[in-house]
Amino acid sequence: MFSIIIPTILRRPDILSSNLDILVEDEIIDEIFIINNNPKKDFEYSNPKIQILKQKENLYVNKSWNLGIQSIKNEYFGLLNDDIVCCKDFISKIYNSKILEEKNTGLVGMNTLYLMDLGIEEDEISPPEIDKDKKPQFMKIDDFDTLLDWGCIILGKKENYYYIPESLKILYGDNYLLYKNKAKNNYSIIDLPVKHIHSLTVRSKAFEQVVVKDMILWPQILTDIS
Question: At how many degrees (to 10) do helices 60-71 and 173-180 cross?
């Protein structure tokens, strides 16, 4: 079974709700943790699979992932953005491909370089259409530094998750996980449709300051990993 973790500041709760409509119907998923990082706004979604962890302050992305991993019960996890809408049975299709069960698999994510039709209109948040018998294809990742939006979806076994340093708040969490799994095979999903709004996060002066700090810290953290 799969546990899903979704951090959010509730910029577009309608998109989040649309994706949850898909995820709760996926039989391979039995728990979904919503990390609500907006202290001033509540989120409601009634389904027994969903637990909402309301935070008193914004944990940002990477610390939210760490918190979610501490909370899950299953062997398999999925880290999902709050600005995507997956196709029906998205997680089951990945799981049924058996790629996550392979001994040398580290993590599986997405890359917009191979999904050029990604996008979502303001009035169009329905799930993308897909053939129910569609089987996913994957591309092995050889260059971690050229990935775009790979971290919008990250799937793997809990044993392949490494706690991201708390000094990194927004950026490089996906890079950190990949580099920690560099001895294994990591993949991009290249043909399952997902709608995605880029840069949905509120851009504020405080946000930009955190991003700059992450950018300064990353080279040293990468050196430590290596």
Answer: 50
Average pLDDT, the chain: 91
Q: Are 93 and 26 in contact (CB under 8 A)?
A: no
Q: Residue 116: pLDDT band by 50, 70, 90 thresholds?
A: very low
Task: Return the percentage of the chain with pLDDT > 90, whole number.
Answer: 73
Q: Would you state the structure tokens that stand for residue 137, as one six-digit string?
A: 């294809």
Top CATH class of 2-225 equals alpha beta
pTM: 0.94
* Domain spans of the chain, in order of start: 2-225
Cβ-contact 163, 69 below 8 angstroms: yes
C-alpha to C-alpha distance for 44 and 85, rounded to whole angstroms: 18
* Cα angle value 52/57/62 (rounded, 5°): 75
End-to-end CA distance of the chain: 33
Distance CA 205, CA 223 (A): 29
pLDDT of 146 reads: 75
What average pLDDT score do residues 28-54 get? Answer: 97
Q: What phi, psi does 36 have (nearest 5°)?
A: -85, 105
Residue 197 exposed, middle or buried by CB count within 10 Å (0-12, 13-18, 19+): buried
